[in-house]
Amino acid sequence: MYQYDQHDQAMVDARVAEFRGQVARRLSGELTEDQFKPLRLKNGLYLQLHAYMLRVAVPYGTLNSAQMRVLGDIADKYDRGYGHFTTRQNIQYNWIKLADAPDILADLAKVQLHAIQTSGNCIRNTTADHFAGAAADEVADPRPYAELLRQWSTFHPEFDYLPRKFKVAIIASETDRAAMRLHDIGIQIVKNEAGEIGCKFFAGGGMGRTPMIAPCIAEFVPALQMISFLEAALRVYNRHGRRDNKYKARIKILVHEIGVAEYSRQVQEEFAHILTLGLEPPPAELDRIKAMFADPGLETGLSDDLDRSDPDFALWVDQNVHAHKQPGYAIVTISLKPTGGIPGDATADQIRLMADLARDHSLDELRVSHAQNIVLPHVKKADLYRVWQALDAAGLATPNLDLITDIIACPGLDYCALANARSIPLAQKITERFADVGRQRELGELKLKISGCINACGHHHAGHIGILGVDRKGVENYQLLLGGAESADTSLGTITGPGFSEDGVVDAIEKVTDVYLARREGAERFLDTYRRIGMVPFKEAIYG
Amino acid sequence: MSAKIKIITGNDLRTGDVIWWTGEGWSRHVDNAVAVDHDADAIIARENARQVVTDTHVIDAFAADGTVRPAHIKDRIRALGPTVRLDLSLKPADPQAGNWVI
Amino acid sequence: MVETVLRYRTDEPVADPAVTVDAFAAQGNATAVRIEPGDDALALLPYLDRLALIEVNFPSFADGRGYSAARSLRERGYTGELRAVGDVLLDQLSHMRRCGFDSFAPDKPISAEAAEAAFATWPEVYQQTVDGRRPIWAARHGTKDA
């Protein structure tokens, strides 16, 4: 894992000092709320429905156990004993006091964490494949590139007041576990025919009210020109992105309006100019970062044997454990989606327990997945049973990964000032309706995603089944979408028709799953059946 | 009979707490909110200048029998707390409190 | 009220008023120009030799086009005065300086002391820009100063 040196530490420490001064100026009245708001947002501090909310960055979703423990401690010390893991691999605290915020940033800085650029119209925290460094199918670990990108984007002086927020995701395998093409810029680390590592760039993806899948803008940019290319791509956007309407200000609208060919041409022109400036970090810098990710300490020659005699354990292994690139190891996903629970929430004690398990059984590493779960990436198969027992005792062993109850949900109107409808109570009802694990497994892979407003933080466009909460004359109403996906075969869901009440949408989902079970052929997933038979049979069942 | 009124809400600048204008100061309980009229802008300007409250704005509500019910569900949830964590709401002892927001 | 300009150059200030890009192109002898957020800064490139002052207007602090305009001009050889004018806030000075601005005329005056403190916000920087500061990667690997 990456470790700060004195330079990195000096930067986050400077940020804490800067924000401490800004908060003092706000409290004294020197700064008005209008002036202070963009400053606090660049430190992840929102004013939400009930209180201030602090969003802490988890760079490319990777944490060590000391960092995770501090995340738990902050929940106890400054909040109300819990935190919420988000679809951007971050964590949010819901009950923060303004005067405490600088102290929290100081506590975070001690373990090399921060809240820099977790909001505002700037380059946000870069997200990455949560199996990075452990997945068998990656051409390289994407995280060294993500770290290079983190440093470049941190306090970038030119791109602090972009037309709108800017999100970058990075992956290094054909299986896209990071919804890469639904980002402002997506980077896929690839190998060319000569065996050289480079970046395939996508631009102009996103969800929100105008969902778009990012087209490719460059097939292969040498890895040692990645930063220069990003400078070019961002500069063209900063110059020409729309600023007359915040709903048309994302890069996806620019790429759509001028066309991908014209956008690419402008980027290439600027790229050629930027390459003459020599502002790319040298190969030695990438090598320095790579060395810190190279070997987490995996042992060789371990056995792949597993005692599956406990049926509950075996079920969990089948559902929540993935193959690791190293024999004798496995990737464990801890579901934060218990039946009737709040998707992505974890108590301080649960957070600290996961930290302990990472320290003792996962080479000190954890990941946050964009599906709001926690990953222990390097667990010896011999330790799996012990890990499972500890998780089970803490309510963290729900065997539902990628099943219908592994729901992504935004905080919705229970917490969010932008929401139009509540998301969490609906998620709770769905998990209760489909609580039977056998039934869930019969339905197989089924990604259900709920957003409480058009901003789509709950990724409803990309759900096999998606739900969008809307406000219909002051009453919560839910639209149902089918057929979205966010993997290598990214697609956007289609609205079934008129919306539903909270209970009505749960009934409609059940009818949708009934159609699937009746019509599926062979080993088809829900998504496959939908793509084969189309919307009509589902619509007839729901509205007929 | 309930009367349609306008009330002022905001957040405590330091704690972030949702607060309501009572005519003399600020309360965390919406039932303490008082109706305002053409004086709203002046109250907001004066209170903002004191650096104790932020995001101050006027909303619609209904008053009846000493209770105040914001007109929009978002403000009712602000007045109660998260319906999925009633233990953290202003009515932790009432398991049915969530129904009030609907 | 006297206009307060924070200036970090040693040459004599330009006395001419800055004119619009259109007026500048029409006048053969103007030495100062003001660009607005939507203007193409690169259209000034043919005139760099006679330009002594480019004002970049920020009608709103949130419109960041001026940062790219400034840096682009510096990258392409402009060495005259580059002044940020308009809704320029204290907390923005450090980044503006990094993008090549060397004078500031904020609508709401900023004291020289406060500006100095703002420039000192970041003890180090990650990016190489046009201000001559050595990025952290250069310090790490002994690359010589930019």
UniProtKB/TrEMBL annotation, chain A:
SUPFAM superfamilies xrefs: Nitrite and sulphite reductase 4Fe-4S domain-like, Nitrite/Sulfite reductase N-terminal domain-like
Gene Ontology molecular functions: sulfite reductase (ferredoxin) activity
Entry's EC annotation: 1.8.7.1
InterPro entries, alphabetized: NIR_SIR_4Fe-4S, NiRdtase/SiRdtase_haem-b_fer, Nit/Sulf_reduc_fer-like_dom_sf, NO2/SO3_Rdtase_4Fe4S_dom, NO2/SO3_Rdtase_4Fe4S_sf
Keywords annotated in UniProt: 4Fe-4S, Heme, Iron, Iron-sulfur, Metal-binding, Oxidoreductase
The organism's place on the tree of life at top rank: Bacteria
One Pfam family from the record: NIR_SIR
KW Manganese (keyword) present: no
Domain Nitrite/Sulfite reductase ferredoxin-like: 52-110, 331-394
Gene3D superfamilies registered for this protein in UniProt: Sulfite Reductase Hemoprotein, domain 1, Sulfite Reductase Hemoprotein,Domain 2
Classification of source organism: Bacteria, Pseudomonadati, Pseudomonadota, Alphaproteobacteria, Sphingomonadales
Domain Nitrite/sulphite reductase 4Fe-4S stretches: 119-273, 404-542
This protein's name: Nitrite/sulfite reductase
TrEMBL record, chain C:
InterPro entries, per database record: UCP030820
Domain of life: Bacteria
Protein's UniProt name: DUF934 domain-containing protein
